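Q: I have 361 residues here and want to know how they pack in 3D. Can you give me a structure?
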Amino acid sequence: MCKEGVEKTEDAPHKASHAGMVGGVDADLARTQHTAVYHRVSALLGQYVDGMGDRGKKVIKFASPAEILEVFGSVCADDGGAERERGASADEVVRLCELVLDYSVRTSSPLFFNQLYGRVDPVGLAADHVLSTLNTNAFTWEVAPVFTTLERALVRRLVDVFGLPEGAEGLFVPGGSMANMYGMHAARYAKVGAAVKREGHSAAGGQLVGFCSADAHYSYSKGANFMGIGTDNFVAVPVDHTPKGRGSMRADVLEEMVVAAKAEGKVPFMVGATSGTTVYGGFDDPVVLREVSTLNTNAFTWEVCRPFPPKTCFRPCRLPKYCQRVGVEKGDAAAWTEHARENQRTACRFRRKGDSPFGGT
C-alpha cells in the first residue's frame, strides 16, 4: 500500500511537468514561435505585394531544378552539408519562404504575359488571406454561416445579372474543367434520368455521345474520359473560320453529325457551346445551336470563356446586355470563368444550371 502510494505521489509531478508538452516541446512556447513565424512571413508578403508593379524587378530569377534543390537544401543542411533529422528552425522557415518568393515567377509583374491569367488584384488576394486564416469548409451552415450565406446571395446575384430564368441554381467550383464536367454530368442526368445513378451508362439504352466545337476547351474531352463516356464519343464539330463565321461552330454540320449518331443507335445527350474560344475567340451562335440541340439532344450547355470586357462585371447596366448578346440565357447550363479578365485568384469559376431540363439533378 505504502509503496503504491509513494509511486503515485512521485509520479504526479512528472505528469504535471508534461501537461503543457506536445512531442516533448512546450505547447505554449511552440505556439508563440509559430505565431512569430507567421508575422515575419506576412511582412515578407506585404513587401512582395508592394513591389508587384515594379518593372525593375525580373519576372524570374532563372535557375535549373538542380540549382533550386541545392539552394533550398543548403538552408536545412548541417554544417557539413549533410541532411539532418531535426526539423527547420523558425529562422530557416522564414528563409525558405524568402527563397520561394525569390525563385518563383513574378506573375504580378507588368512584364509577365500569359494568355490565361496575370496580375492578381490585391483586394482578391486579401480575401484569399481571410479564407486561409479562417480555415473552414462550406459544407454546412453550422460550420460556415457567413460563407454559405454569401455564396447563396452571390449565386442569386449572378443569376439576376446573367438574365437566367427564375429558379436557376449555381455553385462555385475549383476550375473551368470541373465546371464543364458539372454541365456534362447534369446533361447526362437530364437525358437518362435517375436510373443512370444505379445502372450507369447502360440505362441510356445506347452509347452516349456529346458534341462541341473543334476549338472548344479540352476539358470536354477530359470530362468524357473521367465520366466513362469515352473521348471518341465526344465529337468535335468543324468550325467556320471565314470572316462571317468568325470561329463559330458550324450548326449545319452539327445537325448532320447528330442525325448520323442517332442512325448508328447512339444517344446524343448534349451540345457544348463556347462564348469566346481559347485560341481564336470564336462565339458559337446560341439561337441556331439551341434549335439543333432541342430537336436532337434535349440538352444545351454554354461555356462562357473570358467574354466580359473590362469594367463590365457586376454593372447592372452593362452585364445583362452583354449576356443577352452572347446568348447565355439560351443554355440549360453555363460556366463562367472570370479569373482571367477580373484579375482574381485562379480558382474562380461559376457553374449554373437552369430550371429545364436540368432541374432536380
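Q: Anything worth noting?
A: Confidence is low (pLDDT under 50) at residues 1-19, 305-317, 354-361. The first strand starts at residue 21 and ends at 22.
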